[in-house]
Amino acid sequence: MKKRVGILISGRGSNMRSLIAAASLPGFPVEIVLVISNAINAEGLQHASAAGVATKVVSHKAYETREAFDRAVTHELEAAGVEIVCLAGFMRILSTWFARHWEGRLLNIHPSLLPLFKGVHVHEQALAAGVRVSGCTVHFVVPELDAGPIIAQAAVPVAIDDTPDTLASRILVEEHKLYPAALKLVAEGRVRLEDGRTVFSKG
Ligand code: GAR
User: Fold this and answer.
1) pLDDT at position 202, please?
2) What is the whole-number distance in angstroms between the Cα of residue 160 and the centre of ligand 1?
């Protein structure tokens, strides 16, 4: 049985597109059943609809607290039978309630080699630090921002003349490969969250 996956976006949705494309390939253990955006004008929403995936907008502005918004999002995800949630450029900080509710079933992609460069302005942080290698990380989400147990990482070289934009583009190419690969591992049960650590099984 394919796992039912929901994706949360806020904008462009290129990682969402890579997940939808992967899920359309034969043998991929996932069906993307719902895309939710907190922003009505998120570019990714059109792409999801065009690919035949159901979409919903849940505006954070309609809720007084983070947790009330997160509960509304969860209501939509559960109504669609979602089993695994992928954050893909979802630029809202999640409540502890949401992280605990979806524990072990909630993934995020972040454009740095965590635990380096959490939060926003990630590529500016990397360039300011002078690292010669950066990359991207897929991790299980825990209440603390960008701190969850790591599932997969990909590294890219930092060029001496990189700007935040050129570095972001080089990393994005890797994100589009890494996220489907990491989701596949989780959907197949080959990677799981146990006692706050990522556990890999063979097979
Ligand atoms: C991606 O680079 C993703 O890693 C990053 O935002 C971009 C979204 O692009 N996410 C974060 O910074 C989360 N902390 P996309 O909408 O085209 O997937």
Assistant:
1) 77
2) 23
